[in-house]
Amino acid sequence: MAIEKIFKDDATEEKGERARMSSFVGAIAITDLVKTTLGPKGMDKILQSTGRGHGVTVTNDGATILKSLHIDNPAAKVLIDISKVQDDEVGDGTTSVVVLAGELLREAEKLVASKIHPMTIISGYRMAAECARNALLQRVVDNKENAEKFKSDLMKIAKTTLSSKILSQDKEHFAQLAVEAVMRLKGSTNLEAIQIIKKPGGSLKDSFLDEGFILDKKIGLGQPKRIENAKILVANTAMDTDKVKIYGARVRVDSMSKVAEIEGAEKEKMREKVQKIIAHGINCFVNRQLIYNFPEELFADAGILAIEHADFDGIERLALVTGGEIASTFDNPESVKIGHCKLIEEIMIGEDKLIHFSGVEMGQACTIVLRGASHHVLDEAERSLHDALCVLSQTVNDTRVLLGGGWPEMVMAKEVDELARKTPGKKSHAIEAFSRALVAIPTIIADNAGLDSADLVAQLRAAHHTEGCNAGIDVISGSVGDMAELGISESFKVKQAVLLSATEAAEMILRVDEIITCAPRQREDRM
Amino acid sequence: MAAVTAAQPRSSKTESYVDNKRKEDIRQANIKAARAVADAVRTSLGPKGMDKMISTANGEVIITNDGATILNKMEVLQPAAKMLVDLSKSQDAAAGDGTTTVVVIAGALLKQCLLLLTNGIHPTVISDALHKASTKAVDVLTAMAVPLELSDRESLIKSASTSLNSKVVSQYSTLLAPLAVDSVLSVVDPEKPEMVDLRDIKIVKKLGGTVDDTELVKGLVFDKKASHAAGGPTRMENAKIAVIQFQISPPKTDIEQSIVVSDYTQMDRILKEERNYILGMIKKIKATGCNVLLIQKSILRDAVTDLSLHYLAKAKIMVIKDVERDDIEFITKTLNCLPIANIEHFRAEKLGHADLVEEVSLGDGKIVKVTGIKDMGRTTTVLIRGSNQLVIDEAERSLHDALCVVRCLVSKRFLIAGGGAPEIELSRQLGAWSKVLHGMEGYCVRSFAEALEVIPYTLAENAGLNPIAIVTELRNRHAQGEINAGINVRKGQITNILEENVVQPLLVSTSAITLATECVRMILKIDDIVNVR
């Protein structure tokens, strides 16, 4: 401390052992927070917002929990970031990745304590990760050729993903929904085309998949409630009056009749605009902005279904699925692409009337209507379903499939253990530690289910000593079971992403030997 | 709890033990909070349940017996307690009635869960068992239910009056129950018999008189006066009604405009022009034979001016102004007419026809009634009267519940006995079923069965009867096979409740049980409360 004042006031610096300790503690604290949500018997968390309204979210989704946390520890932030990346990349395994990274760090902590250099640990981890990945690659099943089998694979994956979520009781039903929705996409990972609508009331079982698109809007007054072979123009234009948008523009007149004339002219302008829109040869007009009474009546007279005030998301999707584009000028009917669909009708879900577009241009499009007891249930159901959809769409592209229930971890752990035995030098300790971290995942799954994890994992390890074993933890019966028979599968892509990004994150945190916290920006009103 | 959080050690050796302690604490805190909410509404259950007086933040006072309303106004903060409030809302949306029941059941289930948890059963095991039990319960209820035909008006009225009997307005149930049934039946579309949109039933509240004066109006009722300016007509037979969305007032452009008056003579001219302009519009209206105008409220400019009202009165046109835009759809549907947004489009075919439009004095105000509408749409209006605002509001809520009950029956045509009979039967059957189950599951299902007894217990308690005597007696009767034996609160004894005409829709019971179970399972699964942004 010879030179003081390198940094600004309030800036702090932590060095060497202290810095590493603080990273470890932060990362492990985060891991402990989310690890109880892992697995089919994982628990949920209430997220209570400290902001206005004290909103409450109940969730089991690692990414959602981590995203909303207040975190001041830099290492913990790294973990949150990898969970976010995992969410964006593959959509599922957001908890697993954080837990694995945390376990790796926990092991590393012990190694560092026994005087092994972090760099040695890192290179050991790298070797172990490579080895684990190869172990998985050897055991993957790829049913790309066999459509029938592949579909059943998808069903299994969907069920496995959903079994750890709120939808677990109705996983059969929702797995079916998710697989059908993803199969419609025909290989594209554009989840935009799958619309999820949440309607409170009913129970989760009443949720259903509907082809086409549902818009949560009402049909204008006096207009047809059902249109076949609809031609749809999607627009974002002001339908009150085309105001002269020059600041301070005003007209000066000297008599009432002139005012009336101007008013008439404004009306006439509107009428022309409506005529132009009608001239597109459409029978359905969807506008993002309000449609006032006057044009609404004109549309009604022309027998056109006009929908006002559709939200941004709504019209973009609508334009996408009906194959139209969003128009804002109507002078060239030829240049505007008009959307098509076979049937527009009003349907009733729960207490609300919605507009259903079926037989749309983009055949992939479909809508999943979620029903549930409350908003909490619905929000959580949406997150769960989203996870399932993500995983499935990834699996459609990368058709390699693994078994689940702690099976991949055990397979990897076994290979990594063998590698440790073959490797000379201090690295072998790190490799061994890696295998211990892998085994931690089945341990946590068992712990969360209230099972005797030590016993189960020991049994599992013994079972895995035989070649070609399918043993994993059967949480429901609380014993070691055959995962292939139980139909518990996971996508290879998810597992690989978990493995690689967790290792990377652990490596990154391990490398740190100094933390410099900059002086916080001064703010007048702290929360 | 703060002490536990602080004591949480960072070393990995002892952590698992302390962690579990914290989780147990959170779970217990959640359950306690949720039960506190349930206890708050418990006394309002049943025909002899008490009401609650709520004084809201803005000084308003509400007296109600409706569980959903009480919970809604309670402004709870604890997250688990909030979930119970939401639960009651969902029941309101799903079935409309039984909003207290659902919360009371959830509270009882939580109480049992706490016991199971302290016995060391894993929450997910309890949760799964509850789910199984609730599925089974729905099966049992469905088996108990009695099918119903929509033509069976008597049964419909019976179930509506069961719902009304627990409300403040119970003494009027003989009047309100048939009213609710008739109004729902009149909006059922024969093409889609399963769908009832309660928005097609408009409820108009008017102070004065008593609830006895509440009536069903085949037509429209506006809680407004007809315009009296310049002695316009207030009664019109053979009315031709136009719903207009434009304004009868001096023109106003969207562009800012100003009229430049440079000398005295111009002023006169402008006034004259204004008069001519309005007169022109009114002539066009008159030409179509229209004699009643409903004018939509406008925020941009005056919908009508004194001048135009004067001319309309001269032209013998009755005017009702300030109709809300949201009401336009209902009005046009009822009158079977189209709204007119521009004077140019004012054509005779857009008008609606009614035999009589008249202004009626009621209590301290006046309303306008439109009756004898030609080709009336499938809508109906209920005019609620009451001696004070609190009674009227409560009557509206009660009527809404009754309407929902009838709607439930329309969409799911099964009736079930009331008076605690289904719950005690469920409890008995599930209790028997639990004996054939293995392991923890059987134990949990038995607790579920016991929890359901809370309904008859509370009913008896609220009626001032001896709950234990009543519940044991009920069990006894049910064990002897009288599955419809229930508590007759009026007589204070146990009778065959179906014969007493105490019936309720199956949907209310099943949805109460499934929703309560779903909510309890969610609370069970929570092991931490995290403060976030």
From TrEMBL, chain A:
<protein>
    <recommendedName>
        <fullName>CCT-beta</fullName>
    </recommendedName>
</protein>
<dbReference type="InterPro" id="IPR027409">
    <property type="entry name" value="GroEL-like_apical_dom_sf"/>
</dbReference>
<dbReference type="GO" id="GO:0140662">
    <property type="term" value="F:ATP-dependent protein folding chaperone"/>
</dbReference>
<dbReference type="GO" id="GO:0016887">
    <property type="term" value="F:ATP hydrolysis activity"/>
</dbReference>
<dbReference type="InterPro" id="IPR027410">
    <property type="entry name" value="TCP-1-like_intermed_sf"/>
</dbReference>
<comment type="similarity">
    <text>Belongs to the TCP-1 chaperonin family.</text>
</comment>
<dbReference type="InterPro" id="IPR002194">
    <property type="entry name" value="Chaperonin_TCP-1_CS"/>
</dbReference>
<dbReference type="GO" id="GO:0051082">
    <property type="term" value="F:unfolded protein binding"/>
</dbReference>
<dbReference type="InterPro" id="IPR053374">
    <property type="entry name" value="TCP-1_chaperonin"/>
</dbReference>
<keyword id="KW-0143">Chaperone</keyword>
<keyword id="KW-0067">ATP-binding</keyword>
<comment type="function">
    <text>Molecular chaperone; assists the folding of proteins upon ATP hydrolysis. Known to play a role, in vitro, in the folding of actin and tubulin.</text>
</comment>
<keyword id="KW-0547">Nucleotide-binding</keyword>
<dbReference type="Pfam" id="PF00118">
    <property type="entry name" value="Cpn60_TCP1"/>
</dbReference>
<dbReference type="InterPro" id="IPR012716">
    <property type="entry name" value="Chap_CCT_beta"/>
</dbReference>
<dbReference type="InterPro" id="IPR002423">
    <property type="entry name" value="Cpn60/GroEL/TCP-1"/>
</dbReference>
<dbReference type="GO" id="GO:0005524">
    <property type="term" value="F:ATP binding"/>
</dbReference>
<dbReference type="GO" id="GO:0005832">
    <property type="term" value="C:chaperonin-containing T-complex"/>
</dbReference>
<keyword id="KW-0963">Cytoplasm</keyword>
<dbReference type="InterPro" id="IPR017998">
    <property type="entry name" value="Chaperone_TCP-1"/>
</dbReference>
<dbReference type="InterPro" id="IPR027413">
    <property type="entry name" value="GROEL-like_equatorial_sf"/>
</dbReference>
UniProtKB/TrEMBL annotation, chain B:
<dbReference type="InterPro" id="IPR054827">
    <property type="entry name" value="thermosome_alpha"/>
</dbReference>
<comment type="function">
    <text>Molecular chaperone; assists the folding of proteins upon ATP hydrolysis. Known to play a role, in vitro, in the folding of actin and tubulin.</text>
</comment>
<dbReference type="GO" id="GO:0005524">
    <property type="term" value="F:ATP binding"/>
</dbReference>
<dbReference type="Pfam" id="PF00118">
    <property type="entry name" value="Cpn60_TCP1"/>
</dbReference>
<keyword id="KW-0963">Cytoplasm</keyword>
<dbReference type="InterPro" id="IPR027410">
    <property type="entry name" value="TCP-1-like_intermed_sf"/>
</dbReference>
<keyword id="KW-0547">Nucleotide-binding</keyword>
<keyword id="KW-0143">Chaperone</keyword>
<dbReference type="InterPro" id="IPR027409">
    <property type="entry name" value="GroEL-like_apical_dom_sf"/>
</dbReference>
<comment type="similarity">
    <text>Belongs to the TCP-1 chaperonin family.</text>
</comment>
<feature type="compositionally biased region" description="Basic and acidic residues">
    <location>
        <begin position="12"/>
        <end position="21"/>
    </location>
</feature>
<keyword id="KW-0067">ATP-binding</keyword>
<dbReference type="GO" id="GO:0140662">
    <property type="term" value="F:ATP-dependent protein folding chaperone"/>
</dbReference>
<protein>
    <recommendedName>
        <fullName>T-complex protein 1 subunit delta</fullName>
    </recommendedName>
</protein>
<dbReference type="InterPro" id="IPR053374">
    <property type="entry name" value="TCP-1_chaperonin"/>
</dbReference>
<dbReference type="GO" id="GO:0005737">
    <property type="term" value="C:cytoplasm"/>
</dbReference>
<feature type="region of interest" description="Disordered">
    <location>
        <begin position="1"/>
        <end position="21"/>
    </location>
</feature>
<dbReference type="InterPro" id="IPR027413">
    <property type="entry name" value="GROEL-like_equatorial_sf"/>
</dbReference>
<dbReference type="InterPro" id="IPR017998">
    <property type="entry name" value="Chaperone_TCP-1"/>
</dbReference>
<dbReference type="InterPro" id="IPR002423">
    <property type="entry name" value="Cpn60/GroEL/TCP-1"/>
</dbReference>
<dbReference type="InterPro" id="IPR012717">
    <property type="entry name" value="Chap_CCT_delta"/>
</dbReference>
<dbReference type="GO" id="GO:0051082">
    <property type="term" value="F:unfolded protein binding"/>
</dbReference>
